[in-house]
Specification:
Number of strands: 7
Number of helices: 7
Radius of gyration: 15 Å
Strand order of the largest sheet: 2-3-4-1-5-7-6
């Protein structure tokens, strides 16, 4: 991985909402690897640079709001000439239980509006970290669910899940994708 995009919505109003799970992951990585986010207006993003096992990695939090994530992701990737397979996008996933995360190598948007905005410019072959937030059970409740705060129980499970995601990031960065996937998916099965 050369760049990790954590998706979310900017501003204090959204800081603790489920839709910001990608931001939470990026923030944890910045804390662990001593990265400092700075506003990069030309990319409409907050950007930090970290070093993981002698690999320079960009952490990027688009500030465009979720549905317009491509307006940040595409210019950044194009400017640094980063291949899609060296991009990891971390985001909230309704179809995965809170406290669980899944890695995926490529695919469609699965109804996620952030991915829906990224794929036309980047293609489908970027890596994904799908951070489970659970589903409210009814399609009509999805918007208030993703823009709402998780329950205390869900927060605890999501935080533990994010810790597991941070723990496998070294493997993601060094190209040990299969090992990272096995570690994460086995840990989630055992939780």
């Amino acid at each position: 991985m050369k760049v990790i995009f954590g998706l979310g919505n900017p501003g204090e109003k959204y800081q603790h909402t489920r839709h910001n799970a990608g931001f939470w992951y990026a923030d944890l990585l910045a804390d662990k690897y001593h990265g400092v986010f700075k506003t990069e207006k030309k990319f409409k993003a907050e950007v930090a640079t970290i070093d993981i096992l002698n690999h320079k990695v960009f952490l990027v939090k688009p500030q465009t709001f979720m549905n317009c994530s491509g307006q940040s992701v595409i210019p950044f990737v194009n400017f640094y000439r980063i291949k899609p397979e060296n991009v990891l996008v971390a985001y909230d996933e309704l179809d995965i239980a809170a406290g669980t995360a899944k890695l995926k190598k490529s695919g469609g948007h699965g109804g996620h509006n952030g991915l829906r905005d990224i794929i036309p410019g980047l293609g489908p072959d970027f890596r994904r970290l799908r951070i489970g937030i659970g589903h409210p059970g009814d399609k009509s409740k999805v918007t208030p669910w993703v823009l709402g705060r998780p329950s205390l129980d869900d927060i605890i499970m999501i935080e533990r899940c994010l810790d597991r995601c941070v723990a496998i990031t070294d493997d993601l960065v060094t190209g040990a994708w299969d090992r990272a996937m096995k570690s994460l998916h086995t840990a989630d099965a055992d939780k």
